[in-house]
C-alpha cells in the first residue's frame, strides 16, 4: 500500500493518552546473513491506535517507529499452551501472510488479543450498528422495519388507484446553522406509530436539499388507509442534517409529533421542531390537501381539456399557489384513474411530487413503476407455436419416406436438426413454466438484470417494467398519462459472439452462397415453398370458414348472403390454384420417385398369406436405418391430439374399429364396393407393434372422421383406411338413402369444418412415408370439380340454377406433369382400381397397360362417372369424346369441359341443349334439410385442399433436403437467436399495448390512429457501438424490424362479452390458440399463426370496444400493424471510445433509415387531420408555446444529419414526435437499470417543462429529486440489492451533463 512516512511518524509519536494500548511484544523478524536467512524474535515496544499497530526499537521518547501493522482482513491464531514463556499468537492475513507476536505472560497476551480483535473497522462498524439498534429499540422504533417491509409482512401491495386519507407537502424554515455558520443539508423522515406492534415504522422520506435553512421539499407524502392508518395515528417528522452523501451519515436536527387527524382538519399547519433537549431548532410547515377521484368529472378523454369559451369575457384565470402562500380555496386535486392496472401489472411502486410552475402554480405528479405479469406468460405462447412448427417440419421430412444415399444422410441431418431445436424450445418452455410457479411464491414478475445470462429464461425480456407518470396542472387545466416501457436490450446474452449481432449474421447468410451461383436457387426455392405453404394454410382456413358460414345459412334456409360467400370462395380457390409453379412440383415429385427407398414390407402383400409372412420375416432380419430409428422414436412424441379423442361417444363404430386394428394385431378388410370378400389375417402382437413403430410414424387421426355418424352420407371416403392399413383398394359402403337429422349443434358430422382439428390432424396436412403422392394436376382438378359442384348446389337452392358455373382455370394453363404420367403406369403389385363415391379423384396403383393414354382415358372416365353420380352428367364414352389415341392434355381438357358444361346445363346432344341433370333430379319442395345437400361437396373440397397442402409440404421438404448442410445449420442457429430476441421484443410491445388499452381511460385520438394507420412505436436505445454492445445493438435492430410482420387484432374481452353471435369470432380465436375462455382477473393476449405471419389477439375492455369503428361481415375485427422506429445513441465511456475510433457509422446509418420511416409515417399521419397540438392552454389569449409537429420533424432531420459527439438530441426530439403522434415509447440499455433510469427521468422532466410549465430554475432540482427518491432508484435495488446507480467516477465524467446522477446515488454496484 502507499503511505506518507512523515504523517505516520507524527501519528506514532503522539502522547500516550491517544493510544488504545501500549506494551512490550516479541516480534518475529527475518535476519539476513551472508550464508543464510533466519528468523528470530526480538523485543519491541508496541503502541495500538485504531487499526494501526506501531512497533519501536525502544521506549525512548524520540525513538522513531520501525514499522506498522494494519489490523484489517486478518484472523488470530493462538499458539499451543506452554509452561514457559513467551506466550505467542499469529496474525494470519488474507493471502497467506502471517506475523508472529508473543507476550511475557498469558494475561498480557489475552489483553492484547482483546484489543486487536476490537481494532478492525468491521468490528467498530458492527458495534456502531448494534448501539444504534439498541437506541432505536429503546425509543420504540424498529430500525430494520420500513413501510415496504411492513407491507410484505402483511401481504399487501400498494394500489395506485386507492384514494389516500390525505397528501401533504413539507417545508422547513429557520433551521439552525452549525458552529461555523454553515446552513445544514436537511432531509425529512416521516415515521408512523403502529399501536398493535408498539413500534414506529419509517413511512416516507424526502430528498436532500443542499445548504438551506429554509428548504422546500418536492417529495410529498400520501397516507393510506390500507396501511392501517387512521385519524388517531401518530406521525413523527424528524429533520436530519446529512453530513456525507455516500454513506448517508446524518445527525438529527429536531422532530415533532402530530396526529393524522389534526393534519386532516386543516389546509396548512406550522409546527415547531424541537431538539432532544427540548429547544426549538426551527419550524415545519405542512400543506395538506384531499384528493378526489378523476371519474367524477365524467370526461372520457385521458387528457381532459376544459378551455373557457371565447365569449366569456369575465372569466378569471389564476394560478394555484405554492405551499409558501395561502392556498386558493375551492381547488381539488384529482387522483388518476389507473384502469385495470392491478390485473396486468404487479408490485407497483408509487412516488408523488409537487413541483412549482413558472408563475407560482403547482404541478402534481404521480410516478408509478410496476412489473408486467406477461413477462413469463406471453413467451410461452410463442414457444408453443415454434414447437408446433418444428413438429410440422419433422413430419414433412419424415413423410417423404426414406431416401437413398447420398440423400439419406442429409435427411437424417435435417431430422436431427429439428429434433435439437424441438428440444431447446421445449426446455425453454418448461423452464418458463417452472419459473412462473416460482413467481407465485416470490411475487417477482420480472427477470432481474443479474439473470440476463441465464439460458433458462432467455426468451423473457430483462427488467421489463411500466414507467408511468400522471401530471396535473390545474392552472393550465390539463392532466395526462405518460407511459414508458423500460426493458433491457432485446438480445441473446448467453450466446457469446463478437460478430455484430443478428445484422451481421443475416448479411453473412445472404452473402455465403456467392461463391457458387448454383446454390442461390436453393434458398429461393425453400422460401417460395414455405411462403406457398403458409398461404395455402391461410386460404384453406378461410375457405373452411366460408363453408361454415354457408352451413349456418343453409340450416336457417337463408339465401341472402350465400352467393357472396360463394364468390369469395371462388376467388380464394383461384388463388390456391395459382400459388404454385407446376415445374417446381414436378421437380420435387420426380426427385422423390427417383430416390425414395422401397418399403421392405409392401402393404399389398398383407393380402396374400405365405408371401406376406415371408416378406415380414425378411423385414425383421434387416437392421434399422438411422432414418427409421429416428422416426420410430417420434411415434409417440408427435402423436396428434385427436387420437386420444377417438373413443368419444359420438365417434362412429366403423372408425373406432378401424383405429383398433394395430392394437389387436389384426388387419381386416371391410366390405368394399367392388368385392364382398372378407380376408382376415392373424399376426402376432409383437410383429404388429413392431411394424406400427416403424411404418406408422404419424397417427392418422383426421378431424373430419373422428366424430362422424355411422350412417352419414356417401361421402365417407376410403382415404383414412388406406392411410392406416396401407390399402388403396377398399372402402366403406354406406347407404345413401339413410335419413339424417342435421343441425350444427347436434350433428357430429360437421366436424370436418372444425379448423382446429383440420390444423392438428396429420392426415390433413402430411403424406405418410408409405403414401403415393397425388399428381399435381389431379389435385387441381379435384379442387375445380368440388367448387363447381358446391356452387351449383348453392345456386340451385337460391333459385339461380341456370347461372353459369365458374371456370377456375383456362384450358391453355393446364398441363400434365411427368409425375402424373408415371404415377398412372407405375409397376406395382396389382390391385383393383376403385372410385371414391364422393367424387374426389384418387390415384391408385394399376397393373401394366399397353398404352399410357388408355390408362389416362380410364381415369378421365372415372371423373365423369363420379360427376354422373352427383347428377351432373348422364352420358357415355362416345358423348364425352374420349379415345385412347388422344393426348394427355386433350383428355384432361375434354373432361373438364364435360363437367363444366354439365354444371352449366349446356351439354349438346344431337343439336339440342339438355337441361342440367342436377336440377332435374332434385325437387326443391322435397328438400327438407339444405345442409344435407351441401355437406358432400364441402367435404370433397376440404379433402382436395388437404391434398394440395400435402403436395406443397412434400415439395418444401425436398428442397430443404437438397440444401447445403453447413448453410442450413448456420441458418438454424441464426433463426434460434432471432427467435430469442423477437420473443423479448414482442412481449415488451404487447405489454405496452395492453397498458394503453387497459390501464387508463380510452383515448379516442389514439384509437383513431390505431385503427387507421396503426400506432407508432418508438424504441430508444442507449447502447454503445463498442465491444459486446455491438452485438446487442445488432440483435435489437433486427428484433424491432421483425415487429412489422406481426398483425394485431382487437377483440372484445371474453370475460366481458356475452355469448351472443357477436362473440363467435372470439370463440373461434380461442379455439385456435387453445386458451379457452379468458379469466376475469387477467386479460391474456393470444398469439396464433406461424413464425413469418404471427397474429396477436388483444382483448379490449367494453369502454374501448365501444369506441372502435363498426365492423362489417367482410372485416369482422379491427386489425392493425405497428410502425416501429429505433434510434440509438451511446452515452457512456464506451461510446466515447467508439466515437474516437470512428466505429459508429452503422449506428448513424440506422438512425437515418429510421428517420426516413418516421417521416413516411408522419406524412400519412398528417392526412388524418387530427389535432396534434397540446389541448391545454393558459387562457384564451395565450397561445401554446409548443413547436408544431412539422417543426419537430424538421428539427429531427437536422439533428440526425449533424455529426456530433453523443448526439442525444436525436433521442429527445424523436420522443416528443412520438408522443405528439400518440405513439408508444420504449427505452432500453443493456439491463434497463442505470442509463435507462437517467433517460427516463430526463424525459419526464422535459415533459413537465415543455407541457406543464415547470419553472426553469426548478428543472435541475426536479431531475435530481426523481433520480434520488423516485422509482428508478428502487429499480436498481430490485435488480442488485443496492440502491445505487452503477456508475463510477470515470463513467460519470463521460456521461452527458443531463444524464449524470446526483451525489450519493451512484457508486460501485453490479452492472
From TrEMBL:
InterPro entries referenced in this protein's UniProt entry, alphabetically? C2_dom, C2_domain_sf, INPP4, PH-like_dom_sf, PH_domain
Which domain of life does the UniProt lineage start with?
Eukaryota
List, alphabetically, the SMART domains matched: PH
A single Pfam family it belongs to is PH
EC number from the UniProt entry: 3.1.3.66
From start to end residue, where is composition biased (Low complexity)? 840-855, 1057-1071
The PH domain extends over 18-121
Keyword GTP-binding attributed:
no
Q: Which pathway, per its entry?
A: Signal transduction; phosphatidylinositol signaling pathway
This entry carries the following GO cellular component terms, namely:
cytoplasm
Which GO molecular function entries does the Swiss-Prot or TrEMBL record give?
phosphatidylinositol-3,4-bisphosphate 4-phosphatase activity
Give the keywords, sorted. Hydrolase, Lipid metabolism
Polar residues bias: where?
1072-1083
Which residue intervals define the domain C2 in the entry?
A: 141-273
> According to the UniProt record, where is the region Disordered?
710-749, 832-859, 1057-1084
- Give the similarity note: Belongs to the inositol 3,4-bisphosphate 4-phosphatase family.
According to UniProt, the name of this protein is: phosphatidylinositol-3,4-bisphosphate 4-phosphatase
Task: Give the species.
Answer: Gryllus longicercus
Amino acid at each position: 500500500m502507499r503511505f506518507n512516512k512523515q504523517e505516520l511518524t507524527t501519528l506514532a509519536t503522539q502522547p500516550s493518552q491517544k493510544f488504545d494500548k501500549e506494551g512490550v511484544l516479541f516480534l518475529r523478524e527475518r535476519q539476513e546473513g551472508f550464508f543464510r536467512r533466519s528468523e528470530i524474535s526480538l523485543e519491541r515496544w508496541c503502541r495500538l491506535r485504531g487499526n494501526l499497530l506501531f512497533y519501536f526499537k525502544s521506549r525512548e521518547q524520540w525513538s522513531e517507529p520501525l514499522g506498522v501493522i494494519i489490523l484489517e482482513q486478518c484472523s488470530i491464531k493462538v499458539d499451543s499452551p506452554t509452561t514457559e514463556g513467551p506466550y505467542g499468537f499469529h496474525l494470519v492475513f488474507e493471502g497467506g501472510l502471517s506475523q508472529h507476536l508473543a507476550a511475557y505472560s498469558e494475561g498480557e497476551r489475552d489483553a492484547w488479543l482483546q484489543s486487536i480483535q476490537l481494532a478492525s473497522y468491521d468490528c467498530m462498524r458492527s458495534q456502531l450498528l448494534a448501539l444504534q439498534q439498541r437506541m432505536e429499540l429503546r425509543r420504540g422504533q424498529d430500525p430494520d422495519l420500513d413501510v415496504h417491509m411492513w407491507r410484505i409482512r402483511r401481504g399487501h401491495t400498494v394500489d395506485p388507484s386507492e384514494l389516500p386519507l390525505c397528501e401533504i407537502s413539507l417545508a422547513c424554515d429557520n433551521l439552525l446553522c452549525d458552529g461555523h455558520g454553515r446552513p445544514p443539508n436537511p432531509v425529512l423522515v416521516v415515521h408512523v406509530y403502529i399501536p398493535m406492534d408498539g413500534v414506529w415504522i419509517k413511512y416516507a422520506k424526502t430528498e436532500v436539499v443542499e445548504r438551506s435553512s429554509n428548504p422546500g421539499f418536492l417529495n410529498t407524502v400520501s397516507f393510506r388507509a390500507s396501511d392501517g392508518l387512521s385519524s388517531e395515528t401518530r406521525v413523527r417528522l424528524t429533520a436530519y442534517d446529512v453530513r456525507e452523501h455516500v454513506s448517508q451519515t446524518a445527525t438529527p436536527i429536531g422532530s415533532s409529533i402530530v396526529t393524522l387527524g389534526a393534519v386532516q382538519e386543516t389546509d396548512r399547519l406550522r409546527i415547531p421542531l424541537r431538539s432532544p433537549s427540548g429547544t426549538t431548532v426551527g419550524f415545519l410547515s405542512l400543506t395538506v390537501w384531499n384528493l378526489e377521484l378523476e371519474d367524477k368529472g365524467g370526461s372520457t378523454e385521458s387528457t381532459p381539456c376544459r378551455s373557457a369559451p371565447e365569449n366569456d369575457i369575465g372569466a378569471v384565470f389564476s394560478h394555484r399557489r405554492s405551499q409558501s402562500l395561502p392556498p386558493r380555496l375551492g381547488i381539488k386535486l384529482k387522483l388518476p384513474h389507473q384502469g385495470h392496472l392491478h390485473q396486468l401489472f404487479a408490485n407497483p411502486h408509487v412516488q408523488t411530487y409537487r413541483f412549482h410552475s413558472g408563475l407560482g402554480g403547482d404541478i402534481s405528479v404521480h410516478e408509478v413503476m410496476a412489473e408486467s405479469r406477461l413477462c413469463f406468460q406471453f413467451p410461452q405462447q410463442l414457444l408453443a407455436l415454434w414447437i408446433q412448427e418444428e413438429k410440422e417440419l419433422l413430419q414433412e421430412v419424415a413423410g417423404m419416406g426414406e431416401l437413398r444415399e447420398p440423400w439419406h444422410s442429409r435427411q437424417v441431418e435435417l431430422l436431427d436438426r429439428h429434433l435439437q431445436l424441438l428440444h431447446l424450445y421445449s426446455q425453454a418452455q418448461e423452464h418458463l413454466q417452472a419459473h412462473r410457479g416460482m413467481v407465485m411464491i416470490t411475487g417477482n414478475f420480472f427477470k432481474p438484470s443479474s439473470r440476463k445470462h441465464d439460458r433458462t429464461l432467455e426468451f423473457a425480456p430483462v427488467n421489463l417494467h411500466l414507467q408511468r407518470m400522471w401530471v396535473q396542472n390545474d392552472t393550465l387545466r390539463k392532466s395526462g398519462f405518460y407511459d414508458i416501457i423500460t426493458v433491457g436490450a432485446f438480445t441473446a446474452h448467453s450466446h457469446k459472439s463478437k460478430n455484430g449481432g443478428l445484422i451481421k449474421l443475416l448479411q453473412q447468410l445472404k452473402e455465403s452462397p456467392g461463391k457458387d451461383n448454383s446454390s442461390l436457387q436453393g434458398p429461393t426455392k425453400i422460401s417460395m415453398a414455405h411462403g406457398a405453404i403458409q398461404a395455402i394454410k391461410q386460404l384453406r382456413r378461410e375457405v373452411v370458414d366460408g363453408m361454415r358460414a354457408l352451413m349456418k345459412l343453409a340450416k336457417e334456409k337463408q339465401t341472402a348472403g350465400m352467393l357472396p360467400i360463394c364468390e369469395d370462395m371462388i376467388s380464394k380457390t383461384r388463388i390456391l390454384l395459382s400459388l404454385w409453379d407446376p415445374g417446381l412440383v414436378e421437380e420435387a415429385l420426380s426427385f422423390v420417385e427417383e430416390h425414395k427407398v422401397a418399403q421392405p414390407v409392401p402393404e399389398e402383400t398383407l393380402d396374400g398369406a405365405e408371401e406376406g409372412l415371408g416378406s415380414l420375416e425378411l423385414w425383421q432380419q434387416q437392421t434399422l436405418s438411422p432414418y427409421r430409428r429416428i422416426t420410430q422414436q417420434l411415434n409417440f412424441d408427435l402423436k396428434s391430439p385427436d387420437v386420444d379423442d377417438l373413443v368419444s361417444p359420438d365417434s362412429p363404430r366403423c372408425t373406432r374399429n378401424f383405429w383398433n386394428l394395430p392394437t389387436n394385431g389384426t388387419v381386416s378388410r371391410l366390405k368394399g364396393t367392388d368385392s364382398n370378400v372378407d380376408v382376415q389375417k392373424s399376426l402376432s402382437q409383437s410383429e404388429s407393434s413392431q411394424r406400427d413403430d416403424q411404418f406408422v410414424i404419424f397417427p392418422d387421426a383426421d378431424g373430419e372422421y373422428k366424430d362422424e355418424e355411422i350412417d352419414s352420407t356417401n361421402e365417407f371416403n376410403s382415404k383414412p383406411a388406406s392411410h392406416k392399413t396401407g390399402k388403396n383398394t377398399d372402402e366403406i359402403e354406406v347407404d345413401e338413402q339413410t335419413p339424417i337429422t342435421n343441425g350444427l349443434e347436434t350433428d357430429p358430422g360437421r366436424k370436418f369444418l372444425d379448423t382446429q382439428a383440420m390444423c392438428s390432424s396429420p392426415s390433413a396436412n402430411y403424406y405418410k412415408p408409405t403414401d403415393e403422392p397425388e399428381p399435381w394436376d389431379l389435385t387441381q382438378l379435384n379442387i375445380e370439380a368440388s367448387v363447381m359442384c358446391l356452387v351449383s348446389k348453392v345456386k340451385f337452392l337460391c333459385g339461380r340454377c341456370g347461372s353459369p358455373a365458374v371456370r377456375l382455370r383456362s384450358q391453355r394453363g393446364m398441363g400434365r406433369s411427368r409425375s402424373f404420367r408415371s404415377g398412372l403406369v407405375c409397376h406395382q403389385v396389382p390391385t383393383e382400381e376403385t372410385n371414391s363415391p364422393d367424387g374426389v379423384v384418387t390415384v391408385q396403383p394399376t397393373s401394366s397397360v399397353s398404352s399410357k393414354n388408355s390408362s389416362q382415358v380410364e381415369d378421365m372416365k372415372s371423373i365423369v362417372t363420379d360427376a354422373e353420380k352427383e347428377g351432373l352428367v348422364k352420358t357415355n364414352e362416345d358423348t364425352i369424346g374420349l379415345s385412347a389415341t388422344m393426348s394427355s392434355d386433350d383428355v384432361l381438357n375434354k373432361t373438364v369441359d364435360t363437367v363444366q358444361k354439365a354444371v352449366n346445363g349446356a351439354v349438346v346432344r344431337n343439336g339440342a341443349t339438355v337441361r342440367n341433370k342436377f336440377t332435374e333430379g332434385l325437387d326443391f319442395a322435397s328438400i327438407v334439410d339444405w345442409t344435407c345437400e351441401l355437406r358432400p361437396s364441402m367435404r370433397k373440397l376440404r379433402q382436395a385442399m388437404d391434398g394440395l397442402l400435402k403436395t406443397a409440404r412434400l415439395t418444401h421438404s425436398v428442397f430443404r433436403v437438397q440444401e447445403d448442410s453447413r448453410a442450413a445449420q448456420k441458418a438454424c442457429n441464426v433463426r434460434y437467436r432471432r427467435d430469442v430476441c423477437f420473443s423479448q421484443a414482442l412481449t415488451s410491445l404487447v405489454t405496452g399495448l395492453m397498458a394503453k388499452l387497459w390501464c387508463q381511460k380510452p383515448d379516442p385520438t389514439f384509437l383513431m390512429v390505431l385503427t387507421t394507420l396503426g400506432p407508432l412505436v418508438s424504441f430508444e436505445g442507449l447502447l454503445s457501438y463498442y465491444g459486446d454492445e455491438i452485438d446487442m445493438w445488432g440483435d435489437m435492430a433486427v428484433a424491432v424490424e421483425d415487429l412489422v410482420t406481426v398483425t394485431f387484432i382487437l377483440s372484445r374481452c371474453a370475460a366481458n362479452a356475452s355469448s351472443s353471435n357477436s362473440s363467435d369470432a372470439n370463440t373461434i380465436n380461442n379455439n385456435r390458440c387453445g386458451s379457452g375462455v379468458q379469466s376475469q382477473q387477467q386479460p391474456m393476449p393470444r398469439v396464433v399463426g406461424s413464425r413469418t405471419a404471427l397474429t396477436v389477439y388483444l382483448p379490449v375492455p367494453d369502454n374501448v370496444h365501444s369506441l372502435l369503428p363498426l365492423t362489417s361481415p367482410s372485416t369482422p375485427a379491427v386489425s392493425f400493424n405497428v410502425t416501429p422506429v429505433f434510434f440509438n445513441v451511446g452515452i457512456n465511456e464506451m461510446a466515447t471510445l467508439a466515437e474516437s475510433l470512428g466505429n459508429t457509422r452503422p449506428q448513424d446509418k440506422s438512425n437515418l433509415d429510421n428517420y426516413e420511416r418516421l417521416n413516411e409515417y408522419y406524412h400519412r399521419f398528417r392526412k388524418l387531420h387530427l389535432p396534434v397540438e397540446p389541448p391545454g392552454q393558459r387562457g384564451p389569449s395565450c397561445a401554446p408555446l409548443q413547436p408544431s409537429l412539422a417543426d419537430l420533424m424538421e428539427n429531427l432531420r437536422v439533428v440526425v444529419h449533424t455529426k456530433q459527439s453523443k448526439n442525444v438530441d436525436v433521442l429527445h426530439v424523436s420522443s416528443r414526435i412520438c408522443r405528439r403522434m400518440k405513439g408508444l415509447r420504449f427505452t432500453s440499455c443493456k439491463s434497463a437499470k442505470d442509463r435507462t433510469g437517467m433517460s427516463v427521468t430526463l424525459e419526464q422532466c422535459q415533459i413537465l417543462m415543455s407541457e406543464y410549465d415547470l419553472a426553469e430554475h426548478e428543472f435541475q432540482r426536479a431531475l435530481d429529486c426523481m433520480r434520488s427518491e423516485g422509482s428508478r432508484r428502487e429499480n436498481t435495488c430490485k435488480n442488485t440489492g443496492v440502491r445505487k446507480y452503477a456508475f463510477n467516477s470515470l463513467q460519470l465524467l463521460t456521461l452527458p451533463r443531463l444524464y449524470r446522477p446526483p451525489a450519493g446515488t451512484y457508486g460501485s454496484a453490479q452492472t
